[in-house]
């Protein structure tokens, strides 16, 4: 999994750079609104409200209360007092300040969108335990049965089960940063597939007698 991890890291870096450099600030705003409407249509208004409140609480703590956004703003954009004190250079770099402010807003929107998707993931997680625990139990029982007879424990299923589970989890992590509206059904589908793959993987552990 070393190469895929490096690949995912590079994909995340490229994705964030593209968002910061190319994606318009209002693009992510529209994606957030559209995705919120999809969540309400799928899970109801109460779930939508909880997800929004949870995401806003995290965003307030991470970006605002920590001083991160304010520090980033005053590092890249001078205050009115600083501009007045720069005699003869008050309007220098105005285009840069406008562009930098738009990029900061794009970054803030991506962080907020990531937090809304994390909250959505938490909404589905308890229900996924209902599938994960039986999958693990079934896999363990299958493995125990194979230890007592001549049933074949496939190393191929075991190896690729681990790999595909990892790919799905990493792919979902990349999707969490994507500045597009994701259908909320994608998250439980990926989680259910992972549960099934975990069960198959455990059922095909190599026999140890």
UniProtKB/TrEMBL annotation:
Keyword set, alphabetical order: Membrane, Transmembrane, Transmembrane helix
Pfam families for the chain: DtrJ-like
Segments crossing the lipid bilayer: 5-23, 119-139, 160-179, 185-205
UniProt xrefs under InterPro entries: DtrJ-like
Claim: Transport is one of the keywords in the record: no
Protein name: Putative type IV conjugative transfer system coupling factor
The species this protein was found in: Alcanivorax nanhaiticus
Organism classification: Bacteria, Pseudomonadati, Pseudomonadota, Gammaproteobacteria, Oceanospirillales
